[in-house]
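[09:14] KT: can someone run the structure on this one? pasting the chain below
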Amino acid sequence: MPIMRAWRVHELGEPEDVMRLDEVPSPEPGPGQVAIDVAAASLNFPDVLLCRGGYQVKPELPFTVGSELAGTIASLGEGVTGFTVGQRVLAAPAVGAGGLVERTIAPASTTFAIPDTMPMPAAAALHITYQTGHVSLHRRAAIKEGETLLVHAGAGGVGSAAIQLGLAAGARVFATAGGPEKVEVCRKLGAEIAIDYKADDFVAIVKEATGGRGADVIYDPVGGDTFDRSTKCIAFEGRILVIGFTSGRFPEVKANHVLIKNYSVVGVHWGLYHRYEPTLPAQIHDDLMRLYSEGRIDPLISRVAPFAEAPAALAALGSRGTWGKVVVEVG
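[09:31] RB: done, structure tokens below
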């Protein structure tokens, strides 16, 4: 049986302490699955939480992180159609069977073809963040051309995707970020106004820039105090999109305030669409490939790390010491 290298988490803790590079048998796909020779794996904050044991899904030890990847099809499981061996794809493997391996298994339903012109690191960095941004802005918020979109943590992987998708939708885009370097990242992405939340009050700036109206849509992957403050600058009939809680605190929604100001608090759980509306991710993927081919979106990658440095790259992501996406080059 062929042997491959895999970064595996053997106990819970910080990535650099608990990940080990093992030699393990290469997996074979089961029914409805594909085997993928991994070229690049993109890292996300939930991968850090998985290592720490703080994620809502807790795979059995040892497991592998890397929630999105790009590579080529190595083999097809029973019943799989629409793919060919050697085809370039991106994929979201099952939790615990991630992309920090030389070969992995993914459901055919979460695997999508990519064009020959798309570099593998870009393909690995595109899937989850842009799918989330697309379903958030279009499906959940029904954003309209000319509306004002405020994106929190705009220099991160999730936020940078939302900025690009907001601009592609014709929105007026503002962004917050922590520190001058990350603020400049937001400006270069096209944000009309970029706010250093460490130095300035984004509520006052958003209100002034909108003539007191506030933002029509607020994209919030941070939660905590950021969510609380966002309720102070949401417009009439505005929509606050709850993407995540990187601040570490789950905010509490005051229903009386929602009523009095007439706004909506909208939850976004992209992964559930695979269960409840499984055709939607494929439709979104097709639209994302169109936007990429038109040059309207392009994943912001701050670092492409070699395979040997995967734990350190994940640790840097967990310490908030990165901007954009961090990608590990595997094959």
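[09:33] KT: thanks! The chain has a mean pLDDT of 95.
[09:34] RB: yep, looked fine to me
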